[in-house]
Amino acid sequence: MRLLSIIACTIAVALTAAAAPRTNPSNQACIAVPTKVCVFDWARSNAHADERPAARAKAIAQVALAEIDSGLKAEALRDAQELADLAPRIDHDETRLGTSYAIAEIRAKAGDFDGAKNAVPSPNGDYHYWTSAALRTIAVELVKSGKTAEALTLLRAHETTKDDVNIIREFAWDVRDIVVERGEEAGVAALLSHAEEIEDAKPETFRFFTAIHHPSVFVSPLMIIAAAEARAEKFDAALNLAREIRKPSSRAEVVAAVGRVLALRGNTDRALELARRVADPIERGILLRRMYVRRGWEGASELLGSEQPGSAEFAARAFAASMKAASAFTAREQEAAFALIADVTAKAGLIADAITAASRMPSPRLGPKERSLGFWVWLAIAEAQAKSGDRSGSLASFSRAGETARRDPDEASALSEIARAEAKWGFIDEALAVADAIPGAKTQSSESVNGKPVDQNRLFAIYEIAKAMAKAGRIEEAQRLARETEYDGGRTGNGVGVVAEGLAEAGRIDEALKAAKAETNPYWRDDLLLDLVRARAAAGKIGDADRLRRGIVRDVERARALLAIAEAQFKAASLATPKALGAVSEALRLTTTMEYPNLALDILVEAGRILPTPR
Predict the structure, then answer these.
(1) CA–CA separation, 178 vs 298, rounded Å?
(2) What is the DSSP string of 213-251?
(3) If you ran DSSP here, which 8-state letter would residue 484 be given?
(4) Residue 298 clears pLDDT 90, i.e. is over it
(5) Longest pairwise C-alpha distance within the chain
(6) SS3 state of residue 382
């Protein structure tokens, strides 16, 4: 995603600079009988319509990458050659280098590794990123093609990548499961060990992360492979990697990943035994708290499998041994040990055992910024009880979570979490009471958007409550509450559209369409309806999606809605269906009247992607 954003920023395209090409007879034939080949031919023609080298290069690269995803590698390689001929005409240095990167990416994904290596841009001052990114992409594709040794040699040999910790992290993240499955992870682990040494040699500095960062940057380098080995049940290999790490906090992080996976598989006693063997009390404390992952860094669930339900059979068998093991720790350590047991058993549906473990959690004295794990544990138990249908037990556990939340250093955030969870499970009035109790919820927030005070904790809570009210048929209340979430920062995550969202999820489509009209901004209204169409289509409710898309006015959003419906229809039928092909045809027809060619190109490329591959 970060790379796509960079390309979008560096290859600027003025929307009004070119007119959309007129429909020709071949395009009319493609509308009548859409196929991958004719749609991509049309997309390529659209790309060629722009005379500006940078804009044309961006469009051709977009088409070529979609062709590769669609199995049209020969066509993509022809496009790559055209990009190579076009690149010298681009006068902006970074845009030209970005085009060279695109050529390398296309050729690598098409299997032309020699051509990809020849296309790698030479390092150019501040723009060496394109060189590193191209080499990383080639290396990933080499691994996918069974050439792991060649990929590692490529990264180690080049000046821009051999010591680039972030590039090494991203490469390992992309190939971790492949190499572990093949038993080829030793070379990748050695590369990560090198990255670990580079990081350890640097002074401790605060690193600020945002949502645009790659998920691999949130963990110790070796944890990337160790966690993949643990998920493949190569526990000894993962622990051997941890022993190579000199820095205690990084070592604890890797062992914690192994312990977390063991616990999720129902081996909580073995996970706690790993911690018990650690002599250093500081490292042991870090390890135990990191074994318990409720809300963590971006990518935690993907790396550790932390959202997978545990094994009830194994969790039950290990429960007594786990409780005994947890009792052997100090009072401060017991909080994390019993939290781990409670969380895993709750996930496995063993709610009585989870409550027993949670009730044994002590309340140690924490630092001013340390969060009690009891809040997350009781929240997990409450949700497990709600899922099982035990509403009274769930409310009691939500109340326990609220008690711990009020002692939390970030009380407002914790209460917001509880309110959102209660709303999700249908405890609407209780959720509203919690939202009203959020500190600062009724006062002016220090945060503002366009000069209007915004309390994010309350905003996110009442957004979910309003949606739950709509689903329950309390529409007028939902609309009144939803208006509190409106501000000028944008439609996403706020506004009256949440009422339509809740009604659509409940299958009340006519009411959802009526509620959507409360959104007075026509652009946001069409965006809202498109979101609802995509959500209903993805859920298999194709009839609902089709009714919702009829409320969309703008051509681009109408076309995207039609393609979302067509994709769902193709998946449902497992082959081309008249209805799906008809939706694609209508989306293609809409491109002929679009004012901006780059938007038409987006539709053509997406249509090419979802159409069935010729047999």
Answers:
(1) 21
(2) S-GGGGS-HHHHHHHHHHHTT-HHHHHHHHHT--SHHHH
(3) G
(4) no
(5) 79
(6) helix
